[in-house]
C-alpha cells in the first residue's frame, strides 16, 4: 500500500475490520501497517475505533503529530513486542526510585503537603499489592525491600505489549510507578495523578510565579499523560477516562 505517512491524504474511507487476532484499520480496504511494515493488529475494537478516528480526522495533509494513538500502537508492535521482558523490567525498576518516596526536608510546609498527598498512595500500594515502599528525605537513594519491588514488578510484567506502550508513558512522564499503577487500577484519575506528580513544581510556581516556557512544556506532557491513560483503558475496552 502507499506510505501511510504520506504528505497528502490518499484514501477516502476508513474502516475497522476484524482480524485473525483482533482488529485492524483499513484505508480504502487496505490494512494499515506500522513503520516497520508489520500488520497493525489492535487487541480491542474500541481501541481500533479510536485509532481509526485519527485517520479519519486527517484532511488534505497528514499530520502524525495529531495521531498519538496510532503512534502508541506502532510502538507496541514495532518496539515493545520484540523486547517485552526488557521493557517491563525497565519500567518496574522505577519502583526503586519512585517519585513518591523522595521527600523535601525544607520547607516543612512542602514536606507536609507531600506527606498528605503521597502517603495515602503508598498506603494503597501496600493494601493492594502487599508492597510497602520506604520514604526518605532529600535526593539520596532510598533502599527498598526486595520483596516489595518483586511484587510491583509482577504487576508490570502481566501487562501486554499495548498496555506496556501506554504504561511506559504513564511512568516516564510522572516519574512514578505507583502513580501509573494507581491510574490503570482506577485508584486515581489521570488528571489527579498528573497533578500529584507535579506537586513540587506547583509549589515552586506558588512561591515564584509561572515560567511561560515551563508551563507550555508541562501542558504538552500532561496531554501525553492523559492520552496514555486513555490508550491503556481502551486496551481492555474500558470506558476511557
Characterize the structure shown.
This protein is mainly alpha-helical and 241 residues long. It has 2 domains: 14-66, ATP12-like; 83-234, ATP12 ATPase (ATP12-like fold), CATH 1.10.3580. The protein contains 10 helices and 5 strands; from the N terminus they run βββαααβαβαααααα. It has helices spanning 45-57, 68-80, 84-92, 108-129, 146-157, 161-174, 177-185, 190-197, 199-208, 212-234; strands spanning 14-19, 22-27, 30-31, 102-103, 136-137. A 3-stranded antiparallel beta sheet has the order 1-2-3. Strand 4, helix 4 (108-129) and strand 5 (136-137) form a beta-alpha-beta unit. Helix 3 (84-92) runs parallel beside helix 6 (161-174) and helix 7 packs antiparallel against helix 8.
Estimated helix fraction = 55-70%
**Content of β-strand:** 5-15%
Residue-averaged pLDDT = 93
CATH class bucket of the largest domain: Mainly Alpha
Radius of gyration: 20 Å
Q: How many E-type strands? A: 5
**Overall tally of domains:** 2
- Strand order within the widest beta sheet: 1-2-3
According to CATH, the homologous superfamily of the largest domain is: ATP12 ATPase
Structural class given helices, strands, pairing? mainly alpha
Main beta-sheet annotation = 3 strands, antiparallel
Q: Which fold does the CATH topology of the largest domain refer to?
A: ATP12-like fold
Question: How would you sum up the global shape?
Answer: globular
End-to-end Cα distance? 34 Å
Please write the string of helix (H) and strand (E) elements. EEEHHHEHEHHHHHH
- CATH architectural grouping of the largest domain: Orthogonal Bundle
Compute the number of helices: 10
Low-pLDDT stretches are none
